[in-house]
Amino acid sequence: ELVVNVNKDMVNALGLGQVTSEPPSKFSFVSWNLDGLDERNLKRRTKAVCKIIYMEHPDVIFFQEMIPETFSYIEGKLPEYMCIAGSTEGYFTATLLRRFTVYYDSHRITEHSGSLMMRNLLTVEAHIGSLKLQLVNTHLESTRDHSAERIKQLKDSFKIAQDFPEDYTVLLAGDMNLRDKELELAGGIPPGIEDLWISCGSRKECQYTWDMVRNCNKELPGKFKPRCRFDRAYIRHSHPKRVVPAHFGLVGIEKVTSTQCFPS
Amino acid sequence: ELVVNVNKDMVNALGLGQVTSEPPSKFSFVSWNLDGLDERNLKRRTKAVCKIIYMEHPDVIFFQEMIPETFSYIEGKLPEYMCIAGSTEGYFTATLLRRFTVYYDSHRITEHSGSLMMRNLLTVEAHIGSLKLQLVNTHLESTRDHSAERIKQLKDSFKIAQDFPEDYTVLLAGDMNLRDKELELAGGIPPGIEDLWISCGSRKECQYTWDMVRNCNKELPGKFKPRCRFDRAYIRHSHPKRVVPAHFGLVGIEKVTSTQCFPS
DNA sequence: CCAGCTAGG
DNA sequence: CCCTAGCTG
């Protein structure tokens, strides 16, 4: 089972089962925006994230809004994971590979050339048995105002995912800050790429990956509670197909013990 | 000489000389946003526009923000022009051809599919002697908020301009509401297309086609006077090349007699 | 890190 | 039909 956290507020769980019977025949994936720019309870929130990761033991983790202190803390706290950071300053993405199951081959960082927010793509090449993976973790330009730049970044990211050799399974995921209207303007999801939330049945209960109804870390003055599907996970299958999406869900949707807040 | 008004505040004058010596060996083109949504002095402003058109007698005119009343008025006032409207309701583009020099062949209207403002492309096929023209008049999505939609419309427009058969000279112009940053995000001007303001020397004195420094029809409370190059004119040359850009300038930059306002 | 609106420069 | 900030559902 593969757990995908594509949310900074909560975690999306996605089960992918390999078609082959080679061990492990399933793997799990989580994407999670840690909200590392919000210092409130950051230590305790990060600790809670580690606890959830420890309990769920996902094979691959994509973090966004990691900061250097958080990176060091997580490296120390989760020795069973190899940790690859997208940068060393400010806030950045980091990808974690569970050492027992996922083998690191290489990684590279690709800048989003027009970003005003130092956003990039962190691509890790890895393998699970004979399954070859390209793991593309990104945090696209934030806020409505930067819609056009975000659309360009999304298109560039799709292009990169499409262009890997066909023997790779590509996971492109992270905090996309995406609105459906913007996906339309980008020309939609290109041929050969699937949205894993959709692949797993478009379940309403795990639609919103940024959700002020469920998560009260940020409060708005009025009573309006916005919710968006900002965090998304896409797969480009290998040829022949090696992976079958099995389950998509959320994690991190409970408050941290002894605090009034959520992990992110 | 070809006079191009690519401005609602003032007119850009562009001289294009044909390479051949067939008469007429020069033609002139104007693009002009009439600001027909602003009813203040609209009759008098429209009359002033007609006077300038009458004096300059451009061969091809692209109007934007025409309204039905203005269209009827201009048709009556400028009988030497054939008038083709992009719509009959609300506000719209209209293209005028000087009957003595430019011969109408056909026209078509192409919607900008994602527009929330009923924006389209009005394409008139015409000829001047043996020179075959596709005259593409448009008013792209307005305001900063609609940047992403505008970028898509621009790319679609460039694509259409590029795809005409090579024996046509294509003029793509109008009120693009374009910021340079957006042109970058669109991937820049595609191969084979030229910006006529640049072709004619990027002269600073005719850079701003929407200019609150020169034009006081709209007043802002503060002392900040924005200016932008919203209105632009692009050419895709025929093969072999038939037209040489000769001059780009502004018209309509003087106040209307007996009013405190500019024509648009 | 919502969308839509308004005010002030 | 500028830009930014601030308000409010």
From TrEMBL, chains A, B:
Keywords: DNA damage, DNA repair, Hydrolase, Magnesium, Metal-binding, Nuclease, Nucleus. GO terms for cellular component: cytoplasm; PML body. Its cofactor is Mn(2+); Mg(2+). It is found in: Nucleus, PML body. GO terms for biological process: double-strand break repair. Its main location: nucleus. GO terms for molecular function: 5'-tyrosyl-DNA phosphodiesterase activity; metal ion binding; nuclease activity; single-stranded DNA binding. Transmembrane segments: none annotated. Residues 30-264 form the Endonuclease/exonuclease/phosphatase domain. This is Tyrosyl-DNA phosphodiesterase 2. The lineage of its organism: Eukaryota, Metazoa, Ecdysozoa, Arthropoda, Hexapoda. The chain holds residues 72 to 335 of 349 of the full protein.
